[in-house]
Amino acid sequence: MINFGNIFFILVRPQLGENIGASARVIKNFRFKNLRIIKPRDIWPNKKAISTSVGAKDLVHNSKIYQDVNSAVKDLHIVFGTTSRMRSINKTNLNLRDAIKIIIKNLKRNKKIGLLFGSEASGLSNEDLVNTNYLINIPTNISFSSINLSHAIAIIAYELFSSLDRKILNIKNFYPSSIASKKELNNFLDFLIKRLEMIGFLKPKEKKKIMIQNIKNTFQKSALSSQEIRTLLGIVSSLIKYKGNLH
Amino acid sequence: MINFGNIFFILVRPQLGENIGASARVIKNFRFKNLRIIKPRDIWPNKKAISTSVGAKDLVHNSKIYQDVNSAVKDLHIVFGTTSRMRSINKTNLNLRDAIKIIIKNLKRNKKIGLLFGSEASGLSNEDLVNTNYLINIPTNISFSSINLSHAIAIIAYELFSSLDRKILNIKNFYPSSIASKKELNNFLDFLIKRLEMIGFLKPKEKKKIMIQNIKNTFQKSALSSQEIRTLLGIVSSLIKYKGNLH
Predict the structure, then answer these.
(1) Per-residue confidence (pLDDT) for residue A88, from 0 to 100
(2) What is the pLDDT of residue B95?
(3) How far is B26 from chain A (nearest CA, A)?
(4) Which of A131-135, B96-100, B149-153, B179-183 has the lowest mean pLDDT?
(5) CA A83, CA B52: separation in Å to the nearest integer?
(6) Which residue in A65, A242, B103, B223 is a FRET match for A205, CA 20 to 30 A apart?
(7) What gap in Å lies between CA A174 and CA B139, rounded to an integer?
(8) B176, A25: Cβ pair inside 8 Å?
């Protein structure tokens, strides 16, 4: 239903090849495919972009170059500008999660979405924003809001990816499957407590009950595996069997 | 209530100064303060780290160097390992949002939280993970999950920041305050339609009603400002007044 190929990441006058390569890499990390570049400063493609893209060389080589925003967005339906500061321009500033709702709604209608990212030095100009329907606001530290180009892309790509892929949305926390049954744990605890009693640890007598309870709680709350319990059993046995002088 | 200074970003054997600098920058972008580094590969501090940190040189200079995970986490209470793949290790893998709930709960109790990030080449080893309470799983493209170190930090720092700062949590979408009243808009539409009627545009007669409705809808749905409406009025007036030949 959702086509990741309908999202277009568009870099506007990027300067550093490293940032373009890093951007390509993180775009691919989150399953997106399309990189468009408007007037890169250096010759294109360049070595630094290719080396920092690591396994996303395909995106660098398949990226399309444009001379202006108009031509880079002409086949798209909804275009977002991205910014880390509130712009006093007559556009709606959306927070990221609300922007993503609009993106998903339009992807479901098979519309093509453009995401504009400004240059390292100066961001997006008001002229760049003429074609945008909305601005996406990435909230940052108000006293240090200058965010790296590929970091802005990483954050938006991650949020989009985790909202788009229903499998990912529904990811359950994973708890170790090897967690031991309560029976295994309690066998160990009984073994331990019996030994502690034998060695005279559970004293004075009036505190015995609460000491046992505390010891049990200590182990009950951590989801121990069968292997870990066997190891603990081994430790307790070995400690008891040891007859030498530990000092 | 929440102290951003209780979050510690810990890089385990990072290799590239650029990545350490970029990490410092994005940590500061999201108002965090603490960077710890375990066995950086190159001499420390190094020029590349300082230059890529841009305005976060203070974090680079204040970062603390450790020789192993044990000593880097000894004053912390809850430690998370980060990974982009499910690890077959006996630890609970949490998705990012659930991990953040646990982090917030512990920050409210004034506990110190460590976040471990592995080296570029090999991530976190099972030995590195011994001290961790949980793993945080960053879901990625299963066929290209190798995410840049500073990108992993950017994503986690952003998510934490947007959950921690209640002002940010409550950020409202910003709509242009200069949006015109319906009265202003309707004055313009009446003016326009009257002119269209005068120039014989609204024909044939039986379609007039629906044509007017469509024209009104066209302008009603975009939240025009007073200034934009004045401009549109000017355009319509000028077009009508123009008596020359446009061809």
Answers:
(1) 66
(2) 87
(3) 7
(4) B179-183
(5) 20
(6) A242
(7) 13
(8) no
Q: pTM for the full model?
A: 0.79
pLDDT 10s digits, A136-182: 989 899 889 999 999 999 999 999 998 887 555 455 566 655 667 77
Give the C-alpha separation, A202 to A210, whole Å.
Answer: 10
In the numeric block, which tokens belong to residue A190? 């009984």
Touching check for B59 and chain A: CB below 8 Å?
no
Retrieve residue A60's tokens: 């660098």
As a whole number, the mean pLDDT across chain B is 86
Residue B170 scores a pLDDT above 60 = no
Q: From the list B140, B171, B227, which residue is nearest A29 (CB)?
A: B140
Kindly give the pairing relationship between strand B78-83 and strand B134-137: parallel
Q: Which residues pair with B115 in a beta bridge?
A: B9, B80
Residue B243 has pLDDT above 70, yes or no: no
ipTM of the predicted assembly exceeds 0.90: no
- The amino acid occupying position B216 is K
Which of A26, A93, A178 comes nearest B148 by C-beta?
A: A26
Q: What is the pLDDT of residues A51-108, one digit of tens each?
A: 999 999 999 999 999 999 989 998 888 899 998 776 667 778 888 889 999 999 888 8
Cα–Cα dist A51/A112, whole Å:
29
Q: Which of residues 68-97 of B touch A (CB under 8 A)?
A: 84, 86, 90-96
> How far apart, in whole angstroms, are the C-alpha atoms of residue A26 and residue B84?
13
Total residue count of chain A as it appears in this document: 247
Q: Taking residues A181-186, report their average pLDDT.
A: 80
Contact criterion met (CB < 8 Å) for B141 and A92:
no
CB contact under 8 A, B165 and A55: no
Beta bridge partners of A38: A12, A66
Structure-block tokens of residue B113? 């939280």
Give Cβ neighbours of residue A182 (< 8 Å, ≥ 6 apart).
none
3-state DSSP call for residue B174? Answer: strand
For B179, counting Cβ atoms within 10 Å of its Cβ (0-12 exposed, 13-18 middle, 19+ buried), the class is middle
Where would I find the beta strands (DSSP E) of B85-238? 92-95, 113-117, 134-137
Residues near B101 by beta carbon (within 8 Å), at least 6 away in sequence: none
Does A19 contact B at CB distance below 8 Å? no
Q: By three-state DSSP, how is residue B225 classified?
A: strand
Q: Which residues of B touch A161 (CB under 8 A)?
A: 139-141
Tell me the shortest Cα–Cα distance from A89 to chain B, in angstroms.
8
Tokens of B202: 């609204």
